[in-house]
Amino acid sequence: MDQSVIVVMPAYNAAKTLERTYRDLPEGVVGKIILVDDVSQDETVEIAQRLGLKTIVHVQNKGYGGNQKTCYLEALAEGADIIVMLHPDYQYDSTLVPELIAPIVDGTADMMMGSRFLGGQVRAGGMPIYKIIANQFLTVCENLVLGLHLSEAHTGFRAYRRELLETIPFLLNSDDFLFDSQVIAQAVAFGFRIGEIGVPTRYFEEASSVNFRRSVVYGLGTLWTLVKYLAHKWGLAQVPQYGKPLRSVISRYHSKGVFREQN
Questions:
Q1: Residues sharing a CB contact under 8 Å with residue 232, sequence separation 6 or more, in sequence order
Q2: What is the pLDDT of residues 215-232, one digit of tens each?
Q3: Is the pTM higher than 0.90?
Q4: Which one, 68, 136, 257, 262, has least CB within 10 Å?
Q5: CATH number for the domain including 176?
């Protein structure tokens, strides 16, 4: 494959699952793996370094969204054509990376998502019933507002065409879990195409999960994201997240390492 594929792993206390996730990645598909550690209290960094991964350690905890910001800036600076975001907690099937990126490679999608609902057996895979209900309610809301037809909008297994991440102002997004919902709305706002494939569901003790309280905060935040998107779309408010491209919000001292045509 002519296109450079970089996998980014936003990591926090993933020592028990990182190597399994890494070993499942198909050979000959991924050019580089970048792990960004968000101040883990276990041996995540040591294991990543032993595996030969490019490892970046935050000086302080920046949150899930803040971690992704570092991931994407690093992947762009490394010259990636396609960036895959894969949690190192083994919740998502690494072997499916080729299927996930295939529509981006052939030019039919700009962003791909691994849907656990298309994959089937969500309950058998261990997803709590309250998460299923909340996930599907929010996905229906997002589909209605954003004009999408997704089976799941809340997956942590995603792939992006370089041009998408060079365009959407993801640096303006939340440093928490809401980052993921905001990226979808931004992709739509800037005219990018979103697709999905089915992936199996894996819930177990070591897999990361958001507790009930944070799930409620995340759900309310997602609904507020949709309100702001509509306000911007209808001209009721100017929301920089959906109107300003990344080039206009990033420091000019860092842009050379992010935008390919300036390299």
A1: 189, 238, 239, 241, 242, 243
A2: 899 999 999 999 999 999
A3: yes
A4: 262
A5: 3.90.550.10
